[in-house]
Amino acid sequence: MPRLVAIVVAHDSAEVLPACLAALAGQHVPAIVVDNASRDASAAVAEAAGARVIRNARNEGYGRANNRGVQAAETAEHVLIVNPDVILGPGAVDALLAAARSWPDAGLLAPRIVEPDGRFFFQARSLLAPYLTNPGGRLALPQGDACAPFLSGACLMMPRRLFLDLGGFDERIFLFYEDDDLCRRVADAGRALVHVHAAEALHGRGRSSAPERGRVFRTRWHQAWSRAYVSRKYGLPDPSLATLLTNLPKALLSALVLRRSGLERYGGSAAGALAFLRGRTALAREGLPG
């Protein structure tokens, strides 16, 4: 019975999956790949690497797909949620499991995430952790294991039972801020969020899915919508109107000067904020049932 099972959500991720899955296999971690209707060979690549593959008929979004994977990992004590563009360094899994034994109150544990340029990614504050006073986001990088207000959803380890008891990722979110939301609920449940310094993971950032037309607009739409959604969920000020008023003039100017990149970027943010103000859901935008 595996103590740990990795969950990898793929969407047009064939280019990065081999390295991700090879790193997991090298540390004896079985993987479940939930394929969100990839148009490339992601599912075949995952099967060739020895992973169990669950095929979604359409792109269900990040949170829903992870929830399905965790449900399928029936024998696991812990689940390791891993983006397909993350490569776990040698010994990372052992370090995470050792930390879980050392810090039994931990609800979430995450490795030290290293960006492609060698930068150590650590978020000094979170939108949903107002109880931790760091309003300026002053960056003080941990030099060892440390509690944190937020752990990146790029790679998270969690007791499977706790994940299920908390309801998993919020399925009303299609993309973005689902990790902030989960971190907040873990903290509200009285469990610690632990950065595990001895576990290293290389994050390809932005390479999880192959480029596609309209991706920037769609990404910015969901960022704006999800930020507004989680703000309302936790009683924080709704940022939608400010987002709309900030981005709409920039989108109109970009259209006037025929600058497509600006139109996608600012237009996506404005459209996502407007959709939230009008009561439209992220799932409705993607044609998914609520």
Automatic annotation (TrEMBL):
Residues 7-164 form the Glycosyltransferase 2-like domain. GO terms for molecular function: transferase activity. Pfam families: Glycos_transf_2. It comes from Methylobacterium phyllostachyos. Gene3D superfamilies: Spore Coat Polysaccharide Biosynthesis Protein SpsA, Chain A. CDD domains: GT_2_like_c (cd04186). The keyword Transferase applies. This is Glycosyltransferase, GT2 family. It comes from the Bacteria.
